[in-house]
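Sequence in, structure out. First:
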Amino acid sequence: MTEFKEFLRELSEQCMKEYQRIADTGGHKEDVSDSAEAISEVDERMTEVIMDAFRARPEKFSFESEELKKKSENLVVSGDYTVVFDEIDGTGNMKNERGPFGPVIGIAEGDDPVFDDVVAAIFYDLKNDSLYEAYSGVGAYRDGEEIGVAETIPEEDIAVRGLVDQAMLGKKPEIAESMWRYHCKDLGSMAFNIALVASDRADFLVTGGHGYVKENNTAEEIGPLYLLVKEAGGEIVDWEGEDIGGTEIGMDRNKSHDVVVAPNQRFAERLADEIKNDISR
């Protein structure tokens, strides 16, 4: 689905310009909401930039995002496509001026999409000025160069390049033992972690348990970037080892997803089995 390629690339450039404009005045460190659900100035402006760009197109779009969800304003209508997005993934990295962060945008067919319905997706790492993109049936790319997952997994656990969601381990400590066997780390951006697996710079990512934490927010990254991983030749399965392609993204219903991102089905199922064993002890 390359009809969105140039549009998404132009939109990513708009997002960078807006971020730079706000960062020049130090606004990227400030929240504009006094509520418990903090919303940064960058988040607020990105919402406007992204939605305005899509509304200028001839197709009809629904919108679901993290910040809209905080405001109870997810705009779900009967349309041609649903835009699932996170204005800024890695907000902590952005505010502390360290590590990757940036917008995640996915375009899915219909108004109640499953993961397999995503036809185009991007993650723009503003920190490193690096664009990850995927188009259904076409491929996955980083800065215009095709990417792919690791072809083999090291036999020694210590050599495996693992990533894990730190917030998950805080709420699901029973999983920690198996995950730390792989010397996992968390780079502070779910989207960047997923992109690392898709581009053969990490061997897996495990995230989940978000039903137990306040934010309960995995859909806005996993929804779009499921396509990035699949187009790169990888797999995303739930903790039962089943591919999530036919699962509703369900962001408008606060649906959380416990998943393993890996280069192949066999390794993904192995990690899922380890998680199940840890939880059942």
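Second:
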Amino acid sequence: MSALKLYLAIFVSSLLFSGCVSNSTYKKLETKHKMSQEELAATRSSLIEAKYLLAKTANKRRIQHEKAQSLAKELDEMKSQEENYKLRLEVMKAEQENLKDSLERAKYIAAMAREVTAQRERVLRAYLEKLQTLFSSSELDISIVGGRLLVSMPSDVIFPSGSDKLSDKGQETVKSISAVLAYGSQNQFQIEGHTDTDPIKGGQFKTNWHLGYARAMSVLKVFVSEGVSESLISAASFGQHRPRASNETSEGKALNRRIEIVMIPDLSVLAEGLDAVEE
């Protein structure tokens, strides 16, 4: 700008000195110069404003771009979450189906268990009623306990005192019982010997345990001779340690001296019918 002013001043001065420029011409030139300066200032102002607007626009675009990127990222995350939710939903649906299946299986198993229990009760009841027709309550104590048939015989009725050899009546009694209970080919048995608390005094048995076991084995041998498989029967002795009554009285001791036959029934007899047992 200074150079331009200087140039114009020199040009105007030279014209004045040369006497070739009139006063009106000078004013016109001065006016044009002023207008040129104003136009230049306006152009510069427009340029500054344009630069500002350009920078503002660029910043706005940058912000919009950043927002667009952020939104795109959020969209990707939402899509990923949606996929995860879908996957979890599918897993939950599968778990729900498995739960339904498990519940149905549990109901089925429970129903089968009830049916088996009912069937076992029927079988045991048939054996019990058959034995009750053959023996009086004074000879045998017959009951159903925990899904098993329990036949209790007083030792004094089937064994001589202090002996493990069955009496004639004892042999007959045990054979009659085994003939009924051996009907189920897979019935399982445990023969248990029980005694009172009176200590053994001499003889072949050292303790009540030994006496109880020897008597249980004598009964077991009769069952085997009547067709019960050796793999389905066992003998045990509890000696004096599972009394039914007090050992303080002779009556209580008589109740404690006993043989117990525990039977787990063969449910396959249901397929054949219970007629043979009930006859």
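Remark: The beta strands are 141-145, 148-154, 188-194, 233-239, 258-264.
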